[in-house]
Design a protein that fits this description.
The chain is about 10% helix and about 40% strand. It is mainly β. The chain has one domain. Strands 1, 3, 4, 7, 8 and 39 form a 6-stranded antiparallel sheet that branches. Strand 10 and strand 11 form a beta hairpin. The longest helix is centred in the first third of the chain and has 10 residues. It is globular, with a radius of gyration of 23 Å. One of its GO terms (molecular function) is carotenoid dioxygenase activity. Pfam families: RPE65. InterPro entries: Carotenoid_Oase. Keywords: Iron, Metal-binding.
Length: about 525
Amino acid sequence: MSKSAQLQLNMLSFFWRNGVETPEPLKADVTGSIPPWLQGTLLRNGPGLFSVGNTSYKHWFDGMALIHSFTFKDGDVFYRSKFLNSETYKKNIAANRIIVSEFGTMVHPDPCKNIFSKAFSYFMNAIPDFTDNNLINIIRYGEDYYASSEVNYINQIDPLTLETLGRTNYRNHIAINLATAHPHYDEEGTTYNMGTAIMNFGRPKYVIFKVPANAIDKEKKKPALRKVELICSIPFHSTLYPSYFHSFGMTENYIIFVEQAFKLDILKLATAYFRDVNWGSCLKFDKDDITLIHLVNRKTGKTVSTKYYADTFVVFHHINAYEEDGHVVFDLITYQDSNLYDMFYIHNMKQDVDKFIETNKEFSRPTCQRFVLPLTPPDTNLVKLQDTTATAVLKQDSSIYCTPDTIFEGLELPGINYKFNSKKYRYFYGTRVDWSPYPSKIAKVDIATRTHQVWIEEECYPSEPVFVASPDAVEEDEGVILSSVVSFNPQKPPFLVVLDAKSFKEIARATIDTAIHMDLHGLFIHDKST
């Protein structure tokens, strides 16, 4: 490796370097002008601790959760961060080594254990009791906020102090082993989410559920999940190979579930511990299968009987969905293979960036695509909308074969003005990426004109952009975009950038005099006292 490549690698090492806590509010240095109406807290979650003692994680998505926040108060910004005090965190720190397995890092029995203890450990891991290292997102049930990932555990946090308040097990309230970290919220505040029941819960199935907004019990401190309501369940297309899903779509009347050909091998999962392989290796992409699209009525729980299907692709993030003139329109970010996760193994991230891009150009780029599902009885012209090239073709068995309309390429971590969630919309936002795990720009995409705008700063890496609408907004893009930004240049401190969402120009930045880690997802909580 050349000296310049080694220097670049050293600079990029902050992506997998252990983060630090800033437990007390730290006032940022604000330049520009923050809108006076912007009052509240931006909560962000992501991996922040990659080694414990002499042990290290193998995958970036394994790092222990480090939650941070930016609180806006009368033009000032205050920063703080804390590690999620999960059971996984406590066990690893107490042992001074990684002793809990993660997605890409399988941990083995203590070598000091006797043969009987080892045998018991293997037996217990046949049905994995997953980690509670909830590093992906911050979600809300009722008025409770939780750090979440995709397992059966979530950890409640205080959104102001970032203290960990306690762990909740989905299984105590609804029969699921896995659940997404990307729920939907309706205008009343009800939370909709999906999970998978694969072990100990009868016939394997996908489960759609909701938690009403009034699921509050402040006095007895009972979790909001105690009021969970089952909407419906959907049997697996392949009994031993459930589809992996990271998110789903929702319109005014429907839940959209894409049962993709990126699947979890249950038998491999159950034997992963014995075979000395990580859980990530139990996922496989079956390119010879099809993609099934399920429509479920939100109110009745009934699945639309029409079989919708498409060619195989891999999806992690839905952008938005809505109904128009007898059609369900949904937008998502697709890949033609399942190699995205491989990019984030630490040994891949440590490659020289130019070499990595050159050797991984065969990896599929993220592509924003639109699918249209006709709801009316089919005839020869199924998609009747004029602003899309998506098609839906009736087959002899009465199923409908769908092909997408490509909107944009090279964007991930999408976000919208959430007031337009489940409604027809025009704009979405995200981070621009190439054949690299490192985001380099923030983009705004105009679906109507198929044009986009970008914000970029040299030597900087922005996080997922979060849209916050102005209180008197008339148009969809009236508001601001918030993104925490880190730099590989040690002379350039991290900052939160505030963009005017309409012009996509920077109007303010809050520079933080401490280290900030690269995060994944989060949300903005409005200050209700203002």
